[in-house]
Amino acid sequence: MTGATGLRIADLTVTYPGPRTGGLGRRSPITAVRTVSLDVAPQETVALVGESGSGKSTIARAIVGLVTPASGTIEYDGVSLLDRRHRAQGRDIAMIFQDPRSSLNPRMSVEASIGEAWHAHPEAAPAGARTDPRRRRDAVVHLLGQVGLDPDVAGKRPTALSGGQCQRVSIARALALGPRLLICDEAVSALDVSVQAQVLQLLVSVREALSLSMLFITHDLGVVRQVADRVAVMRRGELVESADAQSLFAAPQHEYTRELLAAAVDLDVSR
Ligand SMILES: Nc1ncnc2c1ncn2[C@@H]1O[C@H](COP(=O)(O)OP(=O)(O)OP(=O)(O)O)[C@@H](O)[C@H]1O
Ligand SMILES: [Mg+2]
Taking the CA of residue 266 as centre, how many other CA atoms within 13 Å lie in the half-sphere pointing to its CB? Predict the structure, then answer.
């Protein structure tokens, strides 16, 4: 079935090879994600929270094809993302990572980094952007404008930019192929606190302007309150609770969610 159903993950299990144990070098696999089912509807923002190592990034990696699930299904608008042909075509989903510097090639100009996506997906390139350097520059400048960066950033390398500027470039690059869903994996947590709020605001305004859905992975429950329609709580590879954001904060059902909220209040001395 097709149609605008958004992201649908069902019974997802992902394992990694464990460390070698003993002299025989046998590995017992680590189950990082265990039978997780999670949907992100069109234009919905779902926050994925939970302690370190609970499997949040693994879910993100499975969605964008960076790890292969042991079992389960992942579909976007009814099309399986685990089918290699569809994955190769897939540009509905873009991901933004935690460290803006390591996700950009330091040897490439911003323009080249952004334009690269159009070579992999010519069908998504703005008219002439692959063949006419002036048109490519125009298309890049347009994207930079969408993320609040000046045209002259196009010719710079990541090393000449601040962390916040680099993250804006990563967002521009993520938008280059016209995605419908943005996955943000701790996308603001590596930035200075003052810059975090600005980049968060940018993500929210881009989401509104382009009617995107979002899977927003974060440790910061304050951020969750600001951005999420729904919250999914992970613990040790399992989804323990999923609820709309207001009811989750008002009346968490699971003991672990209550602990998580209480811990956040304890840490929140500065606000
Ligand atoms: N490449 C890997 N090889 C082996 N084990 C891994 C690998 N990546 C993650 N793991 C393990 O899988 C589990 C889930 O890790 P994951 O990175 O998905 O957690 P997370 O919720 O994103 O944590 P954090 O909040 O610290 O980013 C952890 O036990 C982790 O040690
Ligand atoms: Mg992670």
Answer: 6
- For residue range 120-179, what is the model confidence (pLDDT) as tens digits? 888 889 988 888 999 999 999 999 999 999 999 999 999 999 999 999 999 999 999 999
Task: Assess if residue 150 is contained within a domain.
Answer: yes
* Residue nearest to ligand 1 atom 26, measured at CA: 52
Q: Range of 124's domain?
A: 99-178
Question: 152, exposed or middle or buried, with CB in 10 Å at 0-12, 13-18, 19+?
Answer: exposed
- pLDDT of 271 > 50? The answer is no
Distance between CA atoms of residues 161 and 5, nearest Å:
38
Q: Domain for residue 65, yes or no?
A: no
Structure tokens at 22: 């003993």
Residues with Cβ–ion distance below 5 A, ligand 2: 57
Residue 57's H or E segment, with its range, is: helix 56-63
| Domains held by the chain: number | 1
Atom 1, ligand 1: which residue's CA is nearest? 16
CA 39 → CA 77, 114, 195, 224, distances in Å? 11, 29, 30, 17
* 184 within some domain: no
